[in-house]
Amino acid sequence: MSAHQVNTWAAASPQGRLDKLSYISPTLPHTHVQIQISHCGLCASDVHLIDGDWGDASVFPQVCGHEVVGFISQLGAEVQGLQLGQRVGVGWYKSACLECEFCRMGDEQHCSALIATCAHGERGGFADYLTCDGRFVFPIPERLTSEHAAPLLCAGVTVYTALKRATRPGMAVGIVGVGGLGHLALQFAAKIGCRVTAFSSTAGKRDEALLLGASHFVEMTGPVDRPVGSEDLDFILVTSAAACNWPSLIAKLRPRGTLCFAGMPPPVTLDISAMMYKTLSVTTANVGGRQDIRDTLAFAAEQQIQPWVQQWPMDQVNAAIDQLRLGHVRYRAVLHNPVAIAPGVFAPAPPVC
Ligand SMILES: [Zn+2]
Ligand SMILES: [Zn+2]
Predict the structure, then answer these.
(1) Which among 92, 123, 144 is positioned nearest to 293, based on CA atoms?
(2) Which of 146, 143, 38, 126 is nearest to 317 (CA)?
(3) Does residue 326 or residue 223 have the better pLDDT?
(4) Under 8 Å between Cβ of 318 and 47
(5) Which residues on neighbouring strands pair with residue 195, listed in sequence order?
């Protein structure tokens, strides 16, 4: 299968606007698939990469996009379990060794041979095509539309993996932040069967939080009071990137409770003695392994969990980024390539000599 041209949107320099940029993707390896991209989510991590916030992770021209959904337009001869034309997704990474300690335990995201989808010089999904290792491509369940599946591949798997590992039905869970991650976490936690309290600094998000599955809403301005009718919490998932009154949140946890960060706030100072008194844990969430991605897609399809999305054509990616920077997106931005949005419509990229 011949080399082909890929048309992307790339930032030429840190914090730059995205412009059209084409590159030649080499002959498809037998183990890989070519995906004609129909949708790609826009994640806060993409903006960090565009801004050069994560050092070597950005390589300019930087092509972001790691919530990729599309149709398999070329299939390597050794790829198993996938078909030409199949609707599939790709998340934060597009290959790993599958042999090391972490890969064997299903934590492929920690593999030292990990190939990220759009970092360290890899060119991601703000494009018309993406080529990747067939073992890191996930069929999209029929019940999920492509625009709803895209944000599940990074934001969704991040919050669901944290929740599925730490919670069970009947637990009292707090979700801090009602935004790109938080609005998904509220839905997942409620569908797991947890009793959910939403925390937000925006009082106007109360109705939305309740609609998304919270049974209580707490407006966070200054110290966080216990909401009327609520109880102490077993697990708090911080989904916001904003600083917060951490001591008063810690005070909401029951003994053996856990504070888990999925958002990335500024450095946090915690009162260890107060935590020790209740044997509290602090942990973090990340993008999960391959099985976590499959579980997230399956659970979302089964439980009808639906990201709230705003869509832009791919060529308006800069407008979408502007809205994300302003905090105006409700709640996930998704870019789409108009030529490929109908299910089953795909075309391999034309070969180049
Ligand atoms: Zn590995
Ligand atoms: Zn992401």
Answers:
(1) 92
(2) 126
(3) 326
(4) no
(5) 172
- Measure 258 CA to ligand 2 centroid, in angstroms: 23
Distance 314 CA to ligand 2 centre (A): 17
Compute, in angstroms, the gap from residue 264 CA to the centroid of ligand 1.
25
174, β-bridge pairs: 197, 236
Q: What six digits make up the tokens of 245?
A: 């009154």
Report the pLDDT value the prediction gives residue 260, as an integer from 0 to 100. 98
What confidence tier does 245 reach under pLDDT thresholds 50, 70, 90? confident
CA of 165 to the centre of ligand 2 (A): 20
Alpha carbon 41 to its chain centroid, in Å, reads 8
| pLDDT at position 286 over 80 | yes
- Residue 347, pLDDT score: 80
Query: At 248, which helix (H) or strand (E)?
Result: helix 246-250
Closest CA to 301 of 89, 109, 95: 89
What pLDDT score does 46 carry? 98
Q: What are phi and psi of 343, to 5 degrees?
A: -55, 135
**Partner residues linked to 7 by β-bridges:** 22
240 alpha carbon to ligand 1 midpoint, in Å?
A: 30
Which parts of the chain are beta strand (E)? Answer: 4-11, 18-25, 32-42, 68-75, 87-90, 93-95, 115-116, 129-133, 138-139, 172-176, 195-200, 216-219, 233-238, 253-261, 281-284, 309-313, 332-336
Domains, the chain, ordered by start: 4-143+304-340 (3.90.180.10), 155-284 (3.40.50.720)
The rounded Å distance from CA 276 to ligand 1 centre is 35
* pLDDT classification of 248: cutoffs 50, 70, 90: confident
pLDDT tens track for 335-346: 999 866 565 667
Amino acid symbol at 24: I
- Output the pTM of the full model: 0.94
Query: Above 70 in pLDDT, residue 220?
Result: yes
